[in-house]
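Morning!

This is the sequence you dropped in the shared folder:
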Amino acid sequence: MLKVSEILRVKGHTLYTATPDMPILQALETMSEQDIGSLVIMDHGELAGMLTFREIIRHLHDNHGDTGTRTVRSIMDDAPVSVSPNTSADEVQRLMLKKHARYIPVLDGPTLMGVISFYDMAQAIVSAQAFENNMLKAYIRDWPSDSEAASS
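The structure's back. Tokens below.
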């Protein structure tokens, strides 16, 4: 069974964070420059929340495109669903669908290990299915025919 730790190992460990007191405009610039859909919000070394394009779009809509002087704290999700490195990929899929979460932080106790995105999950599932497909094709290709079995 595929685990979150395996997905993170393949994905790599690049992680973008911000603080709750960062101006929204600065967070938006970071997300745009790095071509990412979320920032992990850390406060004194602990997970304080998540900021995704969903919160930013909602804020921009409500404020007619003006970020003002407000900080990330005012719009971040301060109670994001999280998983552990031992969580199964099936459970992550279930959580993402149930909670409408496109990004889920991975915590090993209080330590942030990374973020799993909906894209990461799709990529892992496609890779796992391709591997299984190749294994099944190899198994079928090597299947003994009736004439080979009878002559043995």
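Headline: The chain is about 45% helix and 20% strand.

More detail when I'm at my desk.
O.
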